[in-house]
Amino acid sequence: MKFTDGYWRKRGGLTVLHPAHLQDTATAPDSLTVWAATRPIHHRGDTLNSALITVNCTAPAPDVIRVTVSHFAGERSRTPNFTIDEVAGDVSVDRLSLTSGALTARFSDGDNWGLDFLADGRRLTGSGWKGMGVVSGPDGDYIHEQLDLGVGHVVYGLGERFGPLIKNGQTVDIWQEDGGTSSEQAYKNVPFYLTNGGYGVLVDHPGKVSFEVASEMVTRTQFSVAGQSLSYLVIYGPTPADIIRKYTALTGRPALPPAWSFGLWLTTSFTTDYDEETVNKFVGGMADRDLPLSVFHFDCFWMREFNWCDFEWDPRVFPDPPGMLKRLADRGLKTCLWINPYIAQRSPLFAEGASRGYLVRRPNGDVFQCDLWQAGMGLVDFTKPEAREWYAGKLRGLVEMGVDAFKSDFGERVPTDVVWHDGSDPERMHNYYTQLYNEVVFEVLRSARGEGEAVLFARSATVGGQQFPVHWGGDNSSTYESMAESLRGGLSLMSSGFGFWSHDIGGFEGMPDPAVFKRWVAFGLLSSHSRLHGSSSYRVPWLFDEESVDVLRHFTHLKYRLMPYIYGAAREAHLTGLPVMRPMPVAFPADPAATYLDRQYMLGADLLVAPVFSAGGEVSYYVPEGRWTRYVPSTGNADVVEGPRWVREIHGFDSAPLLVRPGAVIPVGARRDRPDYDYRDGVTLRLFEPAEGRTAVVVPGPAGADTVFTVSRSGPEIVVGRMGDALPWQVQLGDQVTSLAADEDSCTLTLG
């Protein structure tokens, strides 16, 4: 939201007050409160007919400072609120500053108003003259804050946004919408951003937050909320990865998804015709072509039309659901069902939910209803404990039947002209609703299947939503442009604290050209999670051409053999918050060339992926410093690429740029038929440009029985050792392959 008319004037009809004079301060052991007058105070008469703005600073965690800006303190308390896990740390306070760990908030005294944030002897950012503002106008009252952007400083994050990865120059409203992947709207709105300037910012407001990122004021990031107070947290890094770690420590780390969820998912698609015979044809066709599936997903029409959601299988096409689920399980498949939080009027559950007060109501007591999406649908009120249990009970019945996962669709279309059971503010609940919805569904699975076995395929999210993986990118189109915008959305979400992400391979809307499908397959199988899904057309590969079958087989086998490495990256996401798919600016913050990259990413710490967005295979990507090795040789392209440099290449459909970072040790599994197996049994350690010194690699084992390998290089000699269970293993260095028996715990190689 913009409040100014150019640099000097305010927009018509607005009154804006800014702190101008630090009038007084008060300290406590863990807080600093500052009172600022909105004009210089030189004598007692200046205190009359004047506003006083209160600024309070606290330290919710080390290297984190919360700033709360308030005008009128009598505003009633509103819910819901984000859950912030506060951790006590070293805090020091004096009259003008508060320090938390390495981060200091320091105010200027007297008429020279200002708030600076400093760390490691330098100024990170700050709120200067006319930075804070109290706004009154015909549309209501607002509080805004503006934090400086230094020369060359850029902003990332703010949820899953499909425009440019860098948000400078953009207006971003944090407001959940079902807008597809080609607009400025977003399914996953997160009022958190990180910068390459050593800090990130979380605006602690679950309702609408309006950001002007180097747009209204081109040297500042402005954020504003309606009302009389605004609270935000400044998080010191210094690196983007450090900021993400500290942000997710505050708002929640992702649960670890089960290993099977990293395999290939195939769906019925959305409006296509299907029954059990169709499902069996697809499953059998994949098996006959050596295309190993992990999950089969039933989209909306597993239920009868106009009955979503009644959680009952359509008996006309699925007469024996328990038997069908068992037959799929006997083939080694997990199953997933589509759900949403809306209850159509024709569903028997509508009358039940309405009579018990489980559906959201309008202020006059009527059940909120609309025909958008489902005829006469109501919305489950997850603020009511009984409604949560009612909805969860329906899901538990399906889990007991044999269902393994749920696609928790929607959660964005939440009205504001309603009354919530717990008195929540409708404006704040609009964005926050998804957190309650996905939490209910995730907890059903976690409680039934156990820790580490719960996984969603969710579309909407807000702050904290990363705790309930996995999220997918929403309704894209079957074009290269939409493939690229999907990647930008994913990288933006990964910059916002989310560890796992997926997208509809081939695009959701339309029937993809075979070339689009094949290029998207490579991108999809080199993502954390991989799903074939469409709207009005199927996504089994033989409907495109026979080469599509070969391409899907190649990349599925590749991913399954990479599972020891990928699952290790997943564990890191679970423990630290660092995403499996890492934006290049997060992975290489000191490389200025990485700042603007949004068509490539790191898969884990050591694999560089550059999807191909052209039928002819032309691709351009950037390689950071060092000797990078191509993981799979590619015809016509050099096996080793020396960076830093830009590379232009041509790739066939069975290839995409996949380079290994120098010094990496990639554990490669022995199986390519499934994603969940004992990664240690027959593992091959592939060594790439081994560096002097010692490297440790953990290969995950079942029930935490991990094996640790160490690689030590001194000159041309490389010693590889093992600590863990006795299982056969291999070491590969270039063309050298050394096979070791289960009782051999070390080997020595010599660089040729």
Describe the structure.
It is a single chain. The chain folds into 4 domains: 17-251, Immunoglobulin-like; 259-340 and 384-581, Alpha-Beta Barrel (TIM Barrel), CATH 3.20.20; 589-660, Golgi alpha-mannosidase II (Immunoglobulin-like, Sandwich); 678-750, no CATH class. Helix content is 19%, strand content 31%. The protein is built from 11 helices and 45 strands. The mean pLDDT is 97.
Figure out the total of helices: 11
Uncertain segments are none
Number of beta strands: 45
Taking the sheet with the most strands, its summary is:
8 strands, antiparallel
Terminus-to-terminus distance: 63 Å
Average of pLDDT: 97
Helix content: 10-25%
Strand content bin = 25-35%
Instruction: Classify the secondary structure makeup into a structural class.
Output: alpha+beta
Catalytic activity: Hydrolysis of terminal, non-reducing alpha-D-xylose residues with release of alpha-D-xylose
Keywords: Glycosidase, Hydrolase
Domain Glycoside hydrolase family 31 TIM barrel: 254-568
Domain Glycoside hydrolase family 31 N-terminal: 55-212
Gist?
Keywords: Glycosidase, Hydrolase. The longest helix is centred in the middle third of the chain and has 24 residues, at 426-449. The model has no long low-confidence stretch (mean pLDDT 97).
